[in-house]
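From the methods appendix. Each design record in this collection lists the tokenized structure first, followed by the designed amino acid sequence. Records were kept in a plain field format so they could be parsed without special tools. The example shown here is representative of the layout used throughout.

RECORD:
FOLD TOKENS (146 positions):
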């Protein structure tokens, strides 16, 4: 099957893996999960592990499978975590994850300056907590502090 090309990058969409803090997963595990759902490969373009290590997922030239209706105009970034120890949505990510996310988004904004940074939950018709924090507010704070 030939991959379609991504049309444009209008959104940088931050997600969570909906895993507990003690689950240290990465692209390998998420790829396996997504294939079990019938997808060809991982739906995200990037994954940020609990220790802040950045892993590449789907190539950025290919549409993701992370935001229905927006996959051809966005890149998907997944933070590992998003749930507390009881499985309740909770945006307690590590400092290392936020440092990596900040650096990645700054880099991507240089390449795609018009792209809007938002959380999965900020897309129209999404009724999820993902990524369990207010990405747009957090990004405004990042911009003010640099």
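DESIGN:
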């Amino acid at each position: 099957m030939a991959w379609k090309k991504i049309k444009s990058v209008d959104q940088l969409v931050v997600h969570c893996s909906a895993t507990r803090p003690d689950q240290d997963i990465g692209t390998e595990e998420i790829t396996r999960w997504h294939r079990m759902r019938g997808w060809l490969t991982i739906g995200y373009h990037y994954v940020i592990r609990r220790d802040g290590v950045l892993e590449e997922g789907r190539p950025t030239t290919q549409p993701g499978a992370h935001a229905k209706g927006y996959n051809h105009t966005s890149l998907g970034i997944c933070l590992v975590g998003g749930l507390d120890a009881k499985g309740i949505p909770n945006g307690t990510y590590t400092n290392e994850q936020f440092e990596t996310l900040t650096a990645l988004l700054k880099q991507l904004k240089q390449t795609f300056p018009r792209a809007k940074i938002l959380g999965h939950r900020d897309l129209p018709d999404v009724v999820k907590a993902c990524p369990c924090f207010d990405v747009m507010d957090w990004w405004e704070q990042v911009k003010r502090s640099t």
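APPENDIX NOTE: The two ends are 44 Å apart (CA to CA).
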